[in-house]
């Protein structure tokens, strides 16, 4: 794919109040550690801490550009990554979050794999370090369980991808509240852009512990609307089959899709009581299916989220935002 050309990597880092992590992230990108890197573009979601101030110290060392989303109708990872990718000059893009540290050998070992295997992207081993009140409480060495070189089943916030493939599928969706990574994955898969996973260390991710109460509350946040958004997008992009095959998306989307159908049938039952029978068949079938796949909790969760998912399915508002370049030059965006 890149034979005869120099591989140039643009690193896109997205941040929101990452002053505790951003310096470690940027230090891992210094030229003596990663010679393939041509530029670093940091896209900040208007942090109110010292994230941009700390990053500014590395402008010359890293050929770093700082873009701040000063205003937006809503902030999300897909929007930030899209802004960064559109500004990138490299023929390869490495997406990172501000709380990630890149391993020094990753690019050196994986870019040749992309050349040899004629694939368009790659992910490696992810190590998660979880902190509570600044204290390390848990470490997971291989979050994705990668054991050998093969086609990836998914990817997260860290991804090395050719700009050609990224742009050809129109990149990240800017209006999704969450699930932007699996949504991009299923579009890449539809157009047969191979993304590999390899047991080469890629990143250390510094994460914050979330207690059970907060996890339950998050079910009812705006992020839960994204399941409906992704279902709608998959219908528009003709990727519904890929969605149903996706391990993570399917276990969340399938129960909600069938609950949505059941809800419509219950409304129709006002006019014809026989529709209740079809609702019972759908729900019993879904209960058995989820039980066989050890995913019975989603039988309840989908019912709690069906209304929010419907909102996500039907509401498709464009995103309006204003970006500051290096905190002084501004440009607005309208779709």
Automatic annotation (TrEMBL):
Q: What is this protein called?
A: Glycosyltransferase family 2 protein
One matching Pfam family: Glycos_transf_2
Keywords (A to Z) from UniProt: Membrane, Transferase, Transmembrane, Transmembrane helix
Tell me the organism's taxonomic lineage.
Bacteria, Bacillati, Bacillota, Bacilli, Bacillales
What are the residue boundaries of the Glycosyltransferase 2-like domain, all occurrences included? 10-140
> From what organism does this protein derive?
Salicibibacter halophilus
Q: Look up the domain of life of the source.
A: Bacteria
Q: Which residues cross the membrane?
A: 248-269
Q: Which InterPro entries match?
A: Glyco_trans_2-like (IPR001173), Nucleotide-diphossugar_trans (IPR029044)
Q: Name one GO molecular function term.
A: transferase activity
The residue stretches assigned to a coiled coil in this entry are none
Keyword Membrane part of the UniProt annotation: yes
